[in-house]
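Archive record
______________

***
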Amino acid sequence: MNDTWIILGASSTIAKAFTRSVAETGAHVILAGRRMDDLDATAADASARGAAGATPVMFDARDPATFQQIVDTAVATGGTVSCAVFVGSMPAQDAIDADPSLIDGTITDSLTGPARFLQMLAPLMEAQGDGAIVGVGSVAGDRGRVGNYVYGAAKAGFATYLSGLRNALGRHGVHVLTVKPGPVDTAMTAGLGKQPFMTTADAVVADIHKALAKKRNVLYTKLIWWPVMTIIKLIPEPIFKKMSI
């Protein structure tokens, strides 16, 4: 029986690359997001690439009423259920400074919404004793930086949540992978200009599959971000707060 992948935030650039990759293995994909016209197009592409099935489903991280239908759809498809989370939003920090109400949506999109969904999905995955969860965070969550500390706080919280979920579900045969990309060439980063060590969605997805095969717990992509962030985390706070990074 084919695997089933729930893909949250399926309209994102990285999610589409991930969808293409698992569709080509014959998996069933459940494409969850807000833009149904876009999800319909992605579903057609996935079917053409060999997916056993491709089901668009409404998902809004800010509306928990949309969550249960996705779980029910996954149960109905059968097979081993896995989930990849590409949900998040990143308003510019200066926009948040001007309108602090933007914090609520940022935290919900990047932390509390995905965490609530995964908590609903966890009993199913625990019962099946198999499958994987891929949670996409960010290197921004490794330390609060002046340019994006609200987004970074949300991603830091998501990484901590995934760490606990990994501990809980790992005892039942479910693997949880935390992915920490640096800047990726996507619509989300389009306004940031050229960033150091920028990578592509396809490269991130290739790294994810390698990490899943090796049962890695945490993936930095590009790998250069692991030593970079290790150094940044070691900078003493009195020095760090004077830096502009």
Observations:
- The domain at 4-240 is CATH 3.40.50.720 (Rossmann fold).
- The chain has a mean pLDDT of 94.
- The two ends are 48 Å apart (CA to CA).
